Amino acid sequence: MTKTVFIIVDGMADLPIRLLKNKTPLDYAIKTNLYRFLKHADFAYPKVLGKFAPQSDSGVMADLGYNPLKYSTGRGWFECLGLNMRPKEGELCIRVNFGSIINGRLNSVRTYMSKQEIEGLSEEINRKVKVSSDFEFKAGEGYRAGLIFHPGKNMLSSFVSNNEPGYTARFFGNEVKLSFATGIKDKNIRKIKAIKKEARYTAELLNDFVSKAAEVIKNSKICKERKKMGLDLPNYLFLRDAANKDPRLYDINKKYGKKWAAVVGMPLEKGIATSAGMALIDTSEEKDIRKDFYDKVEKTVKALSKFDAVYLHIKQTDSVSHLGKFRDKYAIIESIDKIIISKLANSLDLEQDTLVLTCDHATSSELRRHINSNIPVLISNKKFGFSSDFSEVNCSKNHLKEIRNAVDIMPFVMSI
Q1: For the chain, what is the largest distance between any 2 Cα atoms, rounded to a whole number of angstroms?
Q2: Which of 27, 103, 244, 389 could form a disulfide with 23 if both were Cys (CB 3.0 to 4.6 A apart)?
Q3: Contact between 373 and 15 (Cβ < 8 Å)
Q4: Secondary structure of 367-400 in HEC code, one letter for each residue
């Protein structure tokens, strides 16, 4: 059976940048190895969520063929599932950021810490915070964590707002919930609010948790040590995308008759892949980008000996976009070409196999946030003719009419 490698490069798409000769980082980057796949390739340039600026959860779901407006119950479910917290229906699953405030106003929504530090703070929160509902708090990567509240006498509702600035929760009926990147419009810290009457207890519970957790973090030994070293101090938790229902994604293996594996390092993507029925290949996010890329592509190639298709996720491009580091972004894209694309070009049968290269959403390096832009998609397969350099502008000029929205990518690829 022919093989498929489906690569999602997080936040790869961007806007033209004056200091890059009015090119995007993708367009500016040198992609020598990718030309081997352009011999037989075609492009697509679909929307992800219509008029909305998507998060990674909705973007990845859409790329893999799952309509977020049908399946999403809130990102928190996938985050906790990806952290092996085993969420259950009725429990409230939440994505958490360690951040900081100064004099009651936002300083940062992301305070990066070492694995030892974030695990230490998580252990203290589990041990010292006492609220009216049992919970489990688990460290994630960098500044991220997962939080699950277990229902007791009071039912828990997902109809609550986020307290993380820049992400607004929207509800579509009683089942679908998504958060959209709206940008940080002011630095005032707002409490979590109940969107429906049924969520009043939940909102009170979450605000109580945030307040008490902040005290534990502020008085922790870890924060005192970071202060001595002059490091950024986490002193606040930002909660978003609470979910209390299983999204129940269909089994991608059964739908397309192919065995899928996922080489993904972040909890969110692990959660989505698990929900989709993919086999997770053991991997993590390495700080050294070259080491991370070599590890992931080697595991991808190895997985192809047992599986028909592999979903590979690359995170770093989105991270540097949020920091405004557009030069780092195109350098990372060049490293993807030199390490990952080069290895795949030598491992795949370019006359038989299929390579898909795309992203989950666009992240503007100048605005430092997700934006509502179409995404570039490259599909390399022998059925296509030669295509020119892969970039947003080339995809916008010449693209497949069959792929109007991101949810159309996977069905099209699986039909080739």
Answers
A1: 63
A2: 27
A3: yes
A4: CCEEECCCCCEEEECCCCCCCCCCCHHHHHHCCC
DSSP state of 142: T
Q: Do 260 and 308 form a contact (C-beta atoms < 8 A)?
A: yes
Tokens of 82: 């990806």
Q: Count other Cβ atoms within 10 Å, centred on residue 67.
A: 15
Give the strand order in the sheet containing 4-9: 41-44, 377-380, 354-358, 4-9, 309-314, 260-263, 279-280
Distance CA(285)–CA(291), nearest Å, equals 10
**120: helix, coil or strand?**
helix
Contact 92, 209 (CB under 8 A): no
pTM above 0.90, yes or no: yes
- The span from the CA of 131 to the CA of 142, in Å, is 26
Report residue 381: phi and psi, to 5°. -160, 150
Reported as a single tens digit per residue, the pLDDT across 220-262 is 999 999 999 999 999 999 999 999 999 999 999 999 999 999 9
Cα separation, 252 vs 249, whole angstroms? 8
- In 86-220, where does DSSP find H-type helix? 115-128, 200-218
Model confidence at 104, pLDDT cuts 50, 70, 90, reads confident
Pairing of strands 144-149, 135-139: antiparallel
Handedness of CA 61, 99, 238, 153 (dihedral sign): positive
Query: Model confidence at 167, in pLDDT bands (50, 70, 90)?
Result: confident
Domains of the chain: 4-71+248-415 (3.40.720.10), 79-243 (no CATH)
Q: Does residue 58 contact residue 247 with C-beta atoms inside 8 Å?
A: no
**Sign of the dihedral through C-alpha 86, 90, 91, 96:** positive
pLDDT over 90 at 179, yes or no: no
Per-residue HEC secondary structure of 310-353 comes to: EEEEECHHHHHHHCCCHHHHHHHHHHHHHHHHHHHHHHCCCCCC
Q: Is the predicted pLDDT of residue 1 greater than 80, yes or no?
A: no
- How far apart, in Å, do the first and last CA atoms of the chain sit? 13
d(CA 385, CA 186): 49
Amino acid at 206: L
Taking the C-alpha atoms of residue 126 and residue 12, their distance in angstroms, rounded to an integer, is 36
| Nearest CA among 400, 405, 404 for reference residue 416 | 400
With a cut of 90, say whether residue 342 has pLDDT above it: yes
DSSP 192: -
